[in-house]
Predict the structure.
Amino acid sequence: MPAETRASRFVKNGREPADEQRRIRVSFEFFPPKTEEMEKTLWESITRLAPLKPNFVSVTYGAGGSTRERTHSTVKRILAETALTPAAHLTCVAATCDEIDSVTANYCAAGVRHIVALRGDPISGIGERYAPHPGGYRNAADLVAGIKRLVEVQNLAAVEVSVSAYPEKHPDSPTVEADLDMLAAKVDAGATRAITQFFFENDLYFRYLDRVRARGIDVPVVPGILPVQNFKQTKSFAARCGASVPDWLARRFDGLDDDAATRKLIAAAVAAEQVLDLVDRGVTDFHFYTMNRADLVYAVCHLLGLRPDVKEAA
């Protein structure tokens, strides 16, 4: 007797009710381009990923607010030229409260209804000691409260605020408990979603989620997924932001320094394994750090069952 064909995780097999099918939601993160060539790559990626109808797309803010104008320009173009919902990153670094409030008000005036509020990295870069601006917001919780206060005082349109979360602890937090205290403070100030730093071991995420829930924090904690575009760069970046790179991942890329085509295949396989395991364990929302490149992210989303609307494409 032939074995029954295994149904896809995401396609109904005809036996379960339609409302029991899990709905996968994704969001994508981009960074503002520095050159015309990078601008072209970014918009090619946005154009390729837009038909997947992400929940939102976020645009980062460089260390020390160094990309403020380019971030604003990219967000405004997304609003003007696409049907995507942009989420603008905003940080506390190198600016007074009044200056940051002005940026927030400008975003609201442009039509932005979602802000990712972050403390931000020191002007000198990740790994250096952070010091709040003397006239600025002290930390991300203070910034979230400032955004919510500004919206209320100026009677602006409602703004959703997302914040960051760290399965392996923020590098500057003295303890895991202090890190959870900060997340709780951000949520108490008005944040309604947390997006995690990238990780490669899913157990790290689930152990962290258990601690978050035990702390009484009940907002969605969306896993941040980083498809590995370049292993050496990923390892270096992970070391600076406190994310671990397991030995098994290094072995996957061993010997492929001069073999870009195979590296890309391995990267897709690694990201697919991670995401499908998360789905099997109940996760339905994902935030992809795209590095402004679409192919790997598009492939993983395809495995998740996300498809462009054929009618719209026609």
The mean pLDDT is 89. Residues 51 and 312 are 9 Å apart (CA to CA). The beta strands are 25-30, 56-59, 86-91, 114-118, 160-165, 193-198, 221-225, 285-289.
